[in-house]
Amino acid sequence: MNGRTNQKKGEIAMKRNIAFAVLAVFVLGCFIVTGAATPSLAKDKLTLKVAGISAPEYRGTKSLYTIKDIVEKGTEGRIILDIFPANQLGDYTQVFEEIRRGTIEMGLIFLPSQFDVMLEVGSLPFLAETGEGMQEQLSPGSYVYSIIEDSLDKLGVKLLRIYGDGFVGVGLARKPKDPVKAGTPKDAMIRVAPLAVYKETAEDLGFRTASIPYADTYSAIQTGVCDGWIGGSSQINYLSFRDVIKYYIPYNCLFDQTGYIIGKDIWNKISPEDQKVILDAVNEQADKSFADSNAEDVEYQEKLAEAGVEIIPISGSEMAELAEYIRNTTWPKLESTYGKETLDKIKESLQ
């Protein structure tokens, strides 16, 4: 009796072991199939969420849709770009965090300096005096670009390219004194962003400054709280401030820029051939952005003039004097932020 009982128990145990073995094989098979679907294999489709901060009609956003078309066609549908413009996925600081985590894969955004102040280095005043000079400074191969690229790399983010949004000028409700001579009092107060680079630049140009939220800038100029503002291109001054400003000075002292970025982890899962398709598409749009910003600046200065805003011109020699003055006066004040050695190397690269 005990023998038959033991035999029965043995049979049950054997069947149980077989069942567990079959289950293990099934689970392993599912794991292998699931693992084969990871983005690292070029034959599998990978959808990337791409965050943008600008309105759908802005050229930067349009560049994302152009890149989308080129990439999806060039990878034969292996890479799909899902575009979310106009801060739909959050503002640029939130998006940057999400890209670092991998919950958003890619973006065209401002690079938030709270993670590394060196990400501001592309916004140095008079980093260059022309659009061509800015393109050289903010493209692969330059010292400035390498600083930004290395800083992002340490944060787990791959810099694909920098997008040129345009030079910044000063819009004013009343005409300042000696507008094209740096260092002389302008007898005007202007709104600045709460960044040292904006405040120091504006004050060294000769303006008094006030830190006012961007959303309140229009009403501040309208009510006389301040006389004008620095922080926008001719396009932004036309689209958002032409009704409250009477003068625009194209100092071209600062340059607005955004970055095409992607999380390093997701980038490393993309095949080299598909990486090349993405880079080629981004490079084409990045190069185009600088030429577009030059043409756009001319176009919107003309529109400002047509709207009754006086453009105060700055000659090439006057611009060179302004640039030299700011580099010699303002840059030393920023040494505590960026480091003297870094600024000296950048200055050498301008010669």
Tag the structure with descriptive keywords:
single chain; 351 residues; D-Maltodextrin-Binding Protein, domain 2; 9-stranded mixed beta sheet; disordered N terminus
Task: Give a verbal description of the structure.
- Strands 1, 2, 3, 4, 5, 6, 7, 8 and 9 form a 9-stranded mixed β-sheet that branches.
- With 351 residues, the chain is α/β, with parallel strands linked by helices.
- The chain contains 13 helices and 9 strands.
- It has one domain: Bacterial extracellular solute-binding protein, family 7 (D-Maltodextrin-Binding Protein, domain 2, 3-Layer(aba) Sandwich), CATH 3.40.190.
- Mean pLDDT is 89; it is low at 1-42.
- Helix 2 (59-74) runs antiparallel to helix 10 (272-306) and helix 8 packs across helix 10 (272-306).
- It has helices spanning 2-35, 59-74, 92-101, 131-137, 143-154, 196-205, 217-223, 234-241, 264-268, 272-306, 316-329, 335-338, 340-349, and strands at residues 46-52, 79-84, 106-109, 157-172, 189-192, 208-211, 228-232, 247-263, 310-311.
- Strand 1, helix 2 (59-74) and strand 2 form a beta-alpha-beta unit.
- 49% of the residues lie in helices and 19% in strands.
- The longest helix has 35 residues, at 272-306.
